[in-house]
Amino acid sequence: MRLVIVFLLSALLPLSLSHGRDPFAWLYGWQSQGYYFGSLQADTTGGECPDVCDCPPSFPTAMYCDGRGLTDMPTIPSRVKYLYLQNNAITAVPDSAMINATNLVWLMMHHNQLTSEAIGKKAFLKLEGLERLYLQHNNLNSIPPNLPRSLRDLRINHNKIEKVTSADLEGMDNLTILYLHDNAVTDMSTSLKALTSLTLLDISGNKLTKVPEALPEHLHQLYLESNSIDSLPDDFLGRFTQLQYVRMAHNQLTDKGIPPNTFNVTGLVELDLSFNKLERIPPVSTTLQHLYLQANQIKEFTLGSFCSIVDVMNFSKLRTLRLDGNEISRQDIPSDSSLCLRLASDIEV
């Protein structure tokens, strides 16, 4: 049997060599001759891939430079659309850093050591197709200037930003996601007014004392927890037709600071008012499904906060209700509450 195999290989070898090919190239050629699972070769269009980065032939528009200990921006080939620079020690983005990278769609620069002063005023100016920009976990004290109006997802949380002006977000009407949480923002003025497409806004973990003005009307998710907000404006949620999730835990809200029927709006799915200073359960819509009121100062279980009328067709859709950490016990829950709260599998008191 071995003689037959050797004979077949010896017969194939001259035939392969006659065509100028090594018959065993499939074993090692992808390493020594630039092959990559089917003879894919590195794309050098628009410039060579920097030695410190990876530009896989199977994904020629991506450049992976994450976690390489970089302190400076690498040279970026013009073909690159997806650039991964996170988890480095990059301190600056000069104006010239991305002059050749005008095709970028994603730019990931989170977990670096960037400062606002070290980002050029024109650094992002030419990135007219950029959709995602991740700058979280840096040392920024302001939003970089001249951000592309094409942005859809901006993440700039866990920095040191204290103020957001209208000029910072001007013209960004394509933005749908904005993460600004865990900064030191005290004032946002009317900066959010221009964000007409925004659906998710997270400004939790800042130093706000009031709800920002001119919130975009197409919001689906609004996160304001861990601020110092003690009151809400009139008709706070009335003009939002698509808002489903509101989280305002860990603020300073009191009954006096909440206008009547503020949360009695249809469409709302989840409302988190835990860790505030409420003494009463605020009226909510019968369409609300999850309500978190733990760790307040609530002294009475008012069934009317959930149902004004109870019959076969009229009852609360509430499934989750947390009231633990207040000044009431299970004995304070009215005996007929099961008619109103018939979908609530468990009420935590």
UniProtKB/TrEMBL annotation:
This is Fibromodulin. It is found in: Secreted, Extracellular space, Extracellular matrix. It comes from Seriola lalandi dorsalis. One of its GO terms (cellular component) is extracellular space. InterPro entries: Leu-rich_rpt, Leu-rich_rpt_typical-subtyp, LRR_dom_sf, LRRNT, SLRP. The keyword ATP-binding does not apply. The keyword Disulfide bond applies. Transmembrane segments: none annotated. Belongs to the small leucine-rich proteoglycan (SLRP) family. SLRP class II subfamily.
